[in-house]
């Protein structure tokens, strides 16, 4: 059964690989996203529990692709919405970052932290927002910012070190 699943995926990839990438290229902004999404279709096929029950593998392939394109579009729209640092939910999360000094009252701490976060480079700010506001993993953040998970970790480390250093000076 595993061999038949593998053979099916290999056949579909050989027959539809180019068309599937073109399908995604028409629906997403970046070609790297199109290639990643096309690969994800095949990964999902490999993870499917019973490929024997799929009557029309080509139709199934494009159904999975269509769903992935919709998911990607929703994720992109969500990421492109501006973050409002005045939003109480964001203020709440920023107020609870470690090492901000328990002696400061919450309002002053949030105001200072907002100022310190604005000093960061844009990708560092985005990584902080995606990690602490949206709870994304390093891999998900990397995908959204088009950087490696290792670089995400560096950005977050740099941002936290900067915040701790600046908040200590301001306090």
Account of the 3D structure:
- Helix content is 75%, strand content 0%.
- By secondary structure, it is mainly α.
- The chain has two domains: 2-80, Rna Polymerase Sigma Factor, Chain: A (Orthogonal Bundle); 88-170, Arc Repressor Mutant, subunit A (Orthogonal Bundle).
- Helix 2 (31-47) packs across helix 3.
- The mean pLDDT is 80.
Name the CATH superfamily assignment of the largest domain: Winged helix-like DNA-binding domain superfamily/Winged helix DNA-binding domain
Task: Note the overall shape.
Answer: elongated
Roughly what fraction of the amino acids lie in strands?
under 5%
Distance between the termini: 64 Å
Main sheet record: none
Q: What is the strand tally? A: 0
As for the CATH topology of the largest domain, it is: Arc Repressor Mutant, subunit A
Order of secondary-structure elements: HHHHHHHH
Number of helices: 8
How do the strands and helices of this protein lay out in sequence?
Blueprint: H1 2-25, H2 31-47, H3 57-80, H4 88-95, H5 106-118, H6 122-133, H7 138-145, H8 149-170
Helix pairs in contact: 1-2, 1-3, 2-3, 4-5, 5-8, 6-7, 6-8, 7-8
Concise description?
By secondary structure, this protein is mostly helical.
Characteristics:
2 domains; 8 helices; Arc Repressor Mutant, subunit A; mainly alpha; 75% helix; 171 residues; Rna Polymerase Sigma Factor, Chain: A; single chain
């Amino acid at each position: 059964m595993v061999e038949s699943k593998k053979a099916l995926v290999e056949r579909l990839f050989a027959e539809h690989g180019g068309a599937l990438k073109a399908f995604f290229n028409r629906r997403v902004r970046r070609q790297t996203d199109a290639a990643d999404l096309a690969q994800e279709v095949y990964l999902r096929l490999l993870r499917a529990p019973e490929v024997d029950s799929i009557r029309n593998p080509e139709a199934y392939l494009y159904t999975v692709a269509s769903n992935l394109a919709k998911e990607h579009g929703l994720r992109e729209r969500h990421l492109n919405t501006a973050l409002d640092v005045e939003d109480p939910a964001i203020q709440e999360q920023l107020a609870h970052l470690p090492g901000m000094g328990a002696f400061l009252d919450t309002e002053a701490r949030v105001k200072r932290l907002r100022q310190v976060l604005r000093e960061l480079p844009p990708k560092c700010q985005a990584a902080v927002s995606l990690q602490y506001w949206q709870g994304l993993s390093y891999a998900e953040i990397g995908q959204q910012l088009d950087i490696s998970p290792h670089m995400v970790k560096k950005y977050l480390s740099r941002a936290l070190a900067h915040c701790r250093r600046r908040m200590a000076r301001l306090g």
